[in-house]
Amino acid sequence: MSDRHPTLLQPYSERAKTATHPLSRYLFRLMDLKASNLCLSADVTTARELLALADRVGPSIVVLKTHYDLISGWDYNPQTGTGVKLAALARKHGFLIFEDRKFVDIGKTVQMQYTAGTARIIEWAHITNANIDAGKDMVRAMAEAAANWKARIHYEVKTSVSVGTPVAGQFDDGEEQNNGGSDRDSDGRKGSIVSITTVTQSFEPADSPRLAKTNEHGDELVFPGIEEPPMDRGLLLLAQMSSKGCLMTKDYTQACVEAAREHKDFVMGYVAQEALNSAPDDNFIHMTPGCKLPPPGEEENGHVEGDGLGQQYNTPAKLITLLGTDIVIVGRGIIQAADPPTEAERYRRKAWKAYLARLS
Ligand code: BMP
């Protein structure tokens, strides 16, 4: 770990000013505003539980991590489904959604998996991640897909059927017009058209405030103190894992660092077990799973047992103060508690304290 890198001693509010990625700048500001560097890994099994948990724990977190493919009853409707409902909760409580999809494949395939298919992840997840074992071109492919998506969402959803005589300006230049050829007359109308039927269909992103307002009561609520996140999408590179015997080598991790530097406009940072910023102008964000606190009342920096299936745990103090991560990702530590919101607050306080300790 690069223990003397300047970002380790910089407040998140300062890092918000120099981060390259618009979503990282936003996230650092959100962390500062909510005094939270906690991500909930919402690994529950039904959509109903997921939405209820997001609503209850939302006030304590800045990121909610999903595995959409372990949720039964996930509603794929792009306008009213689970992704849209999560996005509304994200706006209400002020958190970003991170789909822990761990993309790994050839570029063309990941582009399609990211933007299309059943889940249309790009539409509701601000952040996703990739294992770059397949090579760095995959990152470029995902960056391109995200840029194309962002360019497309400037068009809004509009499915309309109109019958009548269109006025000038109704068609964009170059748009196909089934008018049999016509000239505009002096008042701008297309003189030779008696009647025309136009079907226009475009779309709107799942996290558009306007779309969500048509959804359910309360979905129009927006977290105070900060604007809504930018429409940019961000990628985290899976640079190291928390699991025992993980096969990711130092060379692989270093390749992630290089890929991140090459795609600063799309890569926000890493899922890693330690801080990886080492070049003078690195300001990537680090999120770290494999985090658990000993039960309340026990030595807070004591050893925490793994789960018997390869998962290994460290405390927020070790991960943030010593190893320099920015956001801890906690799943079962919170979900399996008797009262998840209270436990999430305990994790938030400890993780924030660990960050303040690092600064001092
Ligand atoms: P838990 O806190 O319950 O162990 O959950 C950890 C979560 O983080 C899981 O969703 C897992 O898929 C994810 N994760 C991990 O545990 N280690 C990694 O290295 C990368 C992960 O995404």
Task: Summarize the SSE layout with pairings.
Elements: H1 12-18, H2 22-34, E1 38-41, H3 47-57, E2 63-66, H4 82-93, E3 96-103, H5 107-115, H6 121-124, E4 127-130, H7 137-152, E5 160-164, E6 196-200, H8 209-213, E7 234-238, H9 250-262, E8 267-271, E9 285-288, H10 316-322, E10 327-330, H11 332-335, H12 340-359
Parallel strand pairs: 1-2, 1-10, 2-3, 3-4, 4-7, 7-8, 8-9, 9-10
Antiparallel strand pairs: 5-6
6-hydroxyuridine-5'-phosphate binds at residues 41, 43, 67, 100, 241-243, 271, 289-290, 311, 329-333.
Describe it for me?
This protein has 360 residues and is of the alpha/beta class. It has a single domain, classed as Aldolase class I (TIM Barrel, Alpha-Beta Barrel). Helix content is 34%, strand content 13%. It is built from 12 helices and 10 strands. The strands form 2 sheets. It has an 8-stranded parallel barrel, surrounded by 7 helices. Strands 5-6 form a two-stranded antiparallel ribbon. Strand 9 (285-288), helix 10 (316-322) and strand 10 (327-330) form a beta-alpha-beta unit. Helix 3 (47-57) packs parallel to helix 4, helix 5 (107-115) runs parallel beside helix 7 and helix 10 packs parallel to helix 12 (340-359). It is globular. 40% of the residues are buried. Mean pLDDT is 86; it is low at 156-215. 6-hydroxyuridine-5'-phosphate binds at residues 41, 43, 67, 100, 241-243, 271, 289-290, 311, 329-333. Belongs to the OMP decarboxylase family. Substrate binds at residues 43, 65, 242, 311, 331-332. Its EC number is 4.1.1.23. It comes from Podospora anserina (strain S / ATCC MYA-4624 / DSM 980 / FGSC 10383). One of its GO terms (molecular function) is orotidine-5'-phosphate decarboxylase activity.
